[in-house]
Amino acid sequence: MARTLRVQPLSSDDIASIFDKAAHILSEHGVKVDYEKALERLADAGAQVDMETRMVRFPKETLDAALASVPRAVTVKGGHEKHDFTVPDPSGKFFSTTCVQTMRYLDPDAGDYIENTKQRFAEWCQLVEALPNIDVCAIQTPMDAPSETADVHALNVQLQNTSKPLMLLAYCYESVPYLFDLMLARAGSVEALRERPLLLINPTSLSPLVYKDMDMAQLLGAAEYNIPVAANSLPVAGATSPVTIAGTVLLEVVELLAFLVMSQMFKPGLPFIATVFNTTMDLGTGNALLANSETILTRASVAQFFKEGIGVPVETFSLMADSYVPDGQTAAEKVLQPTILSMAGADILYGAGRLGGSTLASPVQLVIDDRLLAVVKRTVAGVQIDDDTLAMQEIIEAGPGGHYLRRKHTLKHCREMLRPDLFVPDVLDNWINAGRKDLQERAIELYRELRKDLQPVELPDDVKRDMDNVVKAADKALIK
Amino acid sequence: MAFDELQKAVIEGDSDESVRLVQQHLDEGKEAKDILDNGLIAAMDVVGDLFGKGELFIPEMLIAAEAMQDGLALLKPLIVDQEEGGKGTVVIGAVKGDLHDIGKNLVALMLEGAGFNVVDLGADVTPEAFVAAAQEHKADVVGMSALLVTTMPQMRITVSRMRDAGLDAKAIVGGAPLTQAYADEIQADGYASDAPGAVVLCKKLLA
Fold this sequence. Notes:
By secondary structure, chain A is of the alpha/beta class. Chain A is built from 18 helices and 20 strands. Chain A has a domain of 314 residues: Trimethylamine methyltransferase-like (TIM Barrel). Chain B folds into two domains: 75 residues, Methyltransferase, Methionine Synthase (B12-binding Domains), Chain A, domain 1, CATH 1.10.1240; 117 residues, Rossmann fold (3-Layer(aba) Sandwich). In chain B, β1, α5 and β2 form a beta-alpha-beta unit. In chain B, α6 crosses α7. The radius of gyration of chain B is 18 Å and the shape is elongated. The chains are: A alpha/beta, B alpha/beta. Chains A and B meet through loops of A and α5 of B.
C-alpha cells in the first residue's frame, strides 16, 4: 500500500517536553472556566476548582484518566449515512470542511462583495452537498437573520439544505439551548440524535487559557447528546500567545488538552477532535495573519503532537488566505497549508471557500478548493511500490527506443491519474482558441453549471415545521 | 534642539533615561508643559509616524509609550489645566455579552501610544457602564468593540443611551463583524477596520 507522505516538525523528545510542560501548567497553574455549572461538574470529577477565582487545575491522574478514555477514532455523521466518515481514515486520507461565520461573499454575478443571506447560505449548503471533496458544511452568518439569533437561523438553513455532517458553533450563550432543540427537532428524539449526531460541535477557548460560558454550555450539551466535539484553540501569536512558534504550540496544546480532559470528565468516551486554529499577529500592523509560514508550522506541530503524542484525530485551519481576491497569493496559500498540514497528520482540513480574513468567502473559491483538495489528496497519498507498479518486465520488454502507449500495462493503469477538470489539459494554441480562460473564469463557468442542479434536503413537513418553530421560539425569547 | 535627547529616550523605549531627562529639564527650570508638548508628545508623534511607515513594530511602539508615561508621571502633578493624555480621553470596551478583547486591547494600547488618555472598561460592558464612564471621565470618544454578530446590537443601544444622556462624546465602533454600513445605520460617529485606523479616526474626530 502507498505510504502517505509525512512531515514531522517535532522530534519525539520535543513531543515529550511539550507534554510535560503542558501537564505542569494544567496541574500547577490551571485555566479559568467561566461557568458555574461546569465548575461544579469538574470539581465532582476530580479537578481542583476554586469557585471564587474560577481557576481549575487538573491533577496528573485526571489527565491520565482522560487520555485513557478518549476515543482514538471518531465517526462523523451527518443527516444521511452516505456522507458519514471516520477519522483517522485507515488509508491516511483526509477530509475537509467549509468556513464559518461568513458574512460576505465575493459574488461572480455581482462582481463584488455582497452580504450573506439565508437564501445565499442555503445555496452554499446545497453546493457543498454536490462537491465530492467537501465533507463537512460549517455554519455561517446570514446577515438578514436577526443578530441575536443568527446562529439558530443559520443552523436551520444548514440542516435543511445539506445532509453532510455540519460544523456548529454558537454565537452567544443564550442561543445554545435553541441550537440543541433544533438538532433534536431534526433528529426526532434524543435517542436518534445520540445515534446520529448530525454535526461536530466547536467550543472555542478564549486565549489565553479562558473558557467562556457559551463554550462550556456547548461542551456540556455535547456530553449529554453524545455529539462529537471538535474543540478549538485560536491563539494569535504575539498577542494572546507567546510570539515564538514553539510558545504558541505549547499554549495551544495546553488549551486543547484542557478541553480534552473536560470533555472526558463530562462524559468518558465522548468523541473528541483536537482542532487547531491558531493565527499570527503581524506585529508591524496588528493584523492577524491566517496563512503565513509561522502559522502553518505552528499548526503542523500541534497536529503532530496530538496525532503522534496523544493519538486523537486532528482538524486544522488549512485553506485560509490573507488575500481578499482569488489571486496568486490565495492560490499559493491554499496549496501550501493543506499540503503541509495533511502531511503533519491533520484528518480534517478546515476552510474550503474562505478568502482573506475571517468573514469573507466565495462560492467560486469553494469549487476551486474542492478541486485543489483532490490535487493535494492525490499528492500526499504517496507512491505505490510493488512489482506491478515498478514495471521491471515492461522496461525490459519495451527495450531501448521502445514506447509504452500500446502496452497492456499502460492500458491497465491509464485511468488512474488524477485529471483535475479545472486545470488546463491542453496545448497553448488550443487554450488560446478556446478563449484564453484562466482558472477563475473556468471555475465561474463550472460553478454556474453546478448551480443549475442544486436541491434542498427533502425532509418531512412536520420535521421542518418543528425546526421552524424552534427558530421562532428563539427569536421570541432573544430578540430585544 | 532642547529636547532631542529626551525624544530619543522615548523613541527607544528607555524609561530610565526618559525619567532622568525629564527631571533634569525640570531642574533646569523648563516649564512642565513645554517638556510635555515638545519632549514627550513630540516623541510619540515621531513614534506614530515611524509605525505608520512600518519602521517600528507594535511592541516597540508600546515600550516607547511606557517610557513616555514614566516621564509623564513626573510632570502630572505640575500640570494643572492640561488634559492628562494631551490628545483627548477615550473610554473603550467590548460590549455586553462579548468577552473577546484582544482587538480592543490593541486599540487601547495604540491610542495610549498616540498620546490619548484611555479608560479601558474591559469586556462585557453594559450600555449604562459606557455612559457612566464617559460622564465620569468627560470622555471625548467612546469606543465599542464586538467580535460576535450577536453582541453588535448592544452598540446601537449604547449609542442611543449616549444621546439620551446628552453626551457630546463621539461614538466609534470596530470589530470583525463590523462594517461602515452598520456604523452608519446605528448613527455612530465613526468606524475603523483596524487598530491603526482607530487612532487615525480619533485624531480626525477630535481635530
